Amino acid sequence: MILVGFMGSGKSTVAKALGERLGLDVMELDAEIYALSGKTIPEIFAEEGEEGFRNYEYRVLSSACENDGIISTGGGIITHDDSYEMIRKTDRKVIFLNATFDSLYERISDDNSRPLASQPREHVKALYDSRIERYRNAADHEVDTACGLEDTVEAILNLTR
């Protein structure tokens, strides 16, 4: 299973809960990028730009898809065409975790570890708007995360049985 969605949609939290419920390993792509590069995400953005980060992301996605388990992606993975196509063509279930933009923005607005979230609200909203169709096109199912963690996990389990 691959979880996609905008920053703050709950991908990491939901992946962990699903992994525990299903007894599956969880691969956090951001953690794998750090392991591969030895740099934090803000460091990669500062030194290599977004394109450098997306290249690392594609490499760890390729590796992750070779293993069983749950893959928690970064919010912008669908902006890199090669990563987007890999997700669209996978045999794994792809779940788009979504919520209202206002909810997502509230969750991320004070998070300094998200380089793209530190922009003005209208820029973050434009980013969300520019990605929404790609999330939907890549996913097998869309799940609203506004209902809380347990209900979100149950909804995903019901969709993937």
Can you give a write-up of this model?
This protein is of the alpha/beta class and 161 residues long. It is 57% helix and 11% strand. The chain has seven helices and five strands. A five-stranded parallel β-sheet has the order 2-3-1-4-5, sandwiched between helices. Helix 2 packs across helix 3. The model has no long low-confidence stretch (mean pLDDT 93).
Write the SSE topology:
Elements lengths: L1 E3 L6 H12 L3 E3 H9 L3 H24 L5 E3 L8 H9 L4 E5 L2 H8 L12 H18 L2 E4 L4 H12 L1
Helix pairs in contact: 1-7, 2-3
Uncertain parts? none
**How much of the polypeptide forms β-strand, as a percent range?**
5-15%
Order of helices and strands: EHEHHEHEHHEH
Q: Judging from the principal axes of the Cα atoms, what is the shape?
A: globular
Identify the quaternary structure here.
Answer: single chain
Portion of residues within helices: 55-70%
Give me the secondary-structure category. Answer: alpha/beta
Rounded to an integer, what's the Rg over CA atoms?
A: 15 Å
Strand order of the largest sheet: 2-3-1-4-5
Mean pLDDT: 93
Largest sheet: 5 strands, parallel
Straight-line distance between termini: 12 Å
Q: What is the helix tally?
A: 7
Total beta strand runs: 5
Features:
single chain, 161 residues, alpha/beta, globular, transferase, magnesium ion binding
What's the quick description here?
The protein has 161 residues and is an alpha/beta fold.
